[in-house]
Amino acid sequence: MPAKEYQITTMVDFGTKVLGTQNATLNQISDFKEDISNSRTFSFLHEIEMLLEHGLIKGGDLNNAIVYVDKALSPETMEKLRIAFKKDNIAVKPNGILDNLTLHHPNEAARHKLLDVLGDLALVGTRIRGKVIANKPGHYINTQFAKKLSKLIKIERRNNVPKIDLNQTPLMDVNQIMDMLPHRQPFLLIDKVFELSDSHVIAQKNVTMNEEFFKGHFPGAPVMPGVLIVEAMAQTGGILVLNTVPDPENYLTFS
């Protein structure tokens, strides 16, 4: 939903009395380190019993993971847990957490789920400005949402490609461009500017068959070198930057 900055709210409910329902909210990314980053992963005892039976819990540590005990434990199971976690003694606290573990936050489970959402949505590959409300999130649904969001962003970007009439009178011709940029032929790589604001610029480079680089790149199959395309974009960016100062002729732009 719309928001001025990136915000996330998570809501978890596993249908168990030992954990109950929890919510967590991150209102600004600057609070992440203090409020979210130390929220540990968690699991329920029934989820690790199979691993325990097969001796697969090798790197588990009750200091970096929370185990919620959602069933009665036999002395035999308690002994297996003690050995697996290399503890002299092991117990279930009144709040249903295995061993003498103090939560970093009362809603640490929901905060860890928020951490997961934040990490998974980083796969979108662009900065998000809005509020994400995640009800019962998990890595699979998080990444599916990230893929869908990424696809929608790509479609939106394609639809927002500017449409310019290249036959219209340009905002700046090559002489006006040279008044602003220090570049000169043969390395002045933009000829016209059609749009210019504080946040965007649209320019044009006229590419003709008599360009010097076509003589060797490649004879018979002319291709404009990619580095020169990048340089043309950099010069266009120079127009955008120099437009913010009152005396652009006194500045040099380097790319």
From TrEMBL:
Top enzyme class, one word, equals lyase
The EC designation for this entry is 4.2.1.59
Q: Name one GO cellular component term.
A: membrane
Please name the GO terms that the record assigns under molecular function: (3R)-hydroxyacyl-[acyl-carrier-protein] dehydratase activity; UDP-3-O-acyl-N-acetylglucosamine deacetylase activity
Cite the entry's keywords alphabetically. Lyase
Superkingdom: Bacteria
**Which InterPro entries does the entry link to?**
FabA_FabZ, HotDog_dom_sf, Ribosomal_Su5_D2-typ_SF, UDP-acyl_GlcNac_deAcase, UDP-acyl_GlcNac_deAcase_C
Record carries keyword Ribosomal protein: no
Q: Which biological process terms from the Gene Ontology are attached to this UniProt entry?
A: lipid A biosynthetic process
Under the heading PANTHER family, the entry gives: 3-HYDROXYACYL-[ACYL-CARRIER-PROTEIN] DEHYDRATASE
Role description: Catalyzes the hydrolysis of UDP-3-O-myristoyl-N-acetylglucosamine to form UDP-3-O-myristoylglucosamine and acetate, the committed step in lipid A biosynthesis.
Q: What's the name of the protein?
A: N-acetylglucosamine deacetylase
